[in-house]
Amino acid sequence: MGNLTALIRPPTPRLVEALSSHPDRNSINLSKALKQHKKYAEALEQAGARVQSLTPLEDHPDACFIEDTLVIFDDFALACPLKEPSRQGEVESAEKIVSGHRVLKTLPKGATLDGGDLLLTPKILFVGLSRRTNREAAKALKSMVPQRVVTVPVENGLHLKSGVSYLGEDLILLDPTYVESKYFKDFWQIQLEPEDRRAANCIRVNRTLIMTKGFAKVAKRLGAKDLIDQVIQVDISEFEKADGGISCLSLLIPEAPA
Ligand code: CIR
């Protein structure tokens, strides 16, 4: 098992002010959120990740969604030009930690990008064109990565990864009502039924799959895959009320290839 670091950032009382279009955004329960965040960290540890918890950022209600701040590639890390002014100050303190693992790069002026819009696979880098991530970002990435860059329109939600996950070994899990499956035609696909669509955002950490609680049928199906030894279901209801998902709560840093 290679060394994998997972950066997380606990929420602060200002999580209740997070950006959100969720109907229950006004009922975020902070003490519940803190407990859920702890369980999420435990799941990462059980999966074999080295978990590093960063200082909470009092001035940034969305700072627990650390995935959006940087994206880790094999040979560099991209510091994301976040579009939302209230989130822009989140990148700097995560950058300091990530610079110990990878060389940092940025995008040219005019590009905006949230980490949740990049889905990295060995052969293709998918870029969600969303309210947060623009074509300038996708264009700049083309000359930075060895993968082919494919843009995917995201019109019914926040980020590309809200509705699609890469599980490794050419396997994609997706909600076909959220993203069009044709973009992922070079991959094996598991297409979720409408009632399971909230399970589309999950992470594979080593041979463990971490997914949101409440989707036993999906958990069983994924647990039967050769590349997955165990499935851990975590309740992240309070973060979902702030439009967050499983992947948003950590920044996974695999050991740099030799
Ligand atoms: C936001 O709107 O930016 C946060 N409330 C949620 C960010 C979720 N991040 C993600 O899907 N990668």
Word description of this protein:
The protein is of the alpha/beta class and 258 residues long. It has a single domain, classed as L-arginine/glycine Amidinotransferase, Chain A, CATH 3.75.10. It contains 5 helices and 15 strands. A 3-stranded mixed beta sheet has the order 2-1-15, with helices on one face. A 3-stranded mixed beta sheet has the order 3-4-5, covered by helices on one side. A 3-stranded mixed beta sheet has the order 6-7-8, with helices on one face. The longest helix is centred in the N-terminal third of the chain and has 17 residues, at 30-46. It is globular. The model has no long low-confidence stretch (mean pLDDT 97). Bound molecules: citrulline (CIR). The site of citrulline (CIR) has 18 residues, from loops.
Primary descriptors:
single chain, L-arginine/glycine Amidinotransferase, Chain A, three-stranded mixed beta sheet, 258 residues, binds citrulline, alpha/beta
CATH superfamily: L-arginine/glycine Amidinotransferase, Chain A
Strand content: 15-25%
The order of strands across the largest sheet is: 2-1-15
The proportion of residues forming helix, as a percent range, comes to 10-25%
- How many strands in all? 15
What is the distance, rounded to the nearest whole angstrom, between the alpha carbons of the first and last residues? Answer: 15 Å
The residue ranges in which pLDDT falls below 50 over 5 or more consecutive positions are: none
Bound molecules: citrulline
What is the H-and-E element order?
EHEEEHEEEHEEEEEEHEHE
Mean pLDDT: 97
* Rg over C-alpha atoms, rounded to the nearest angstrom: 17 Å
Number of helices: 5
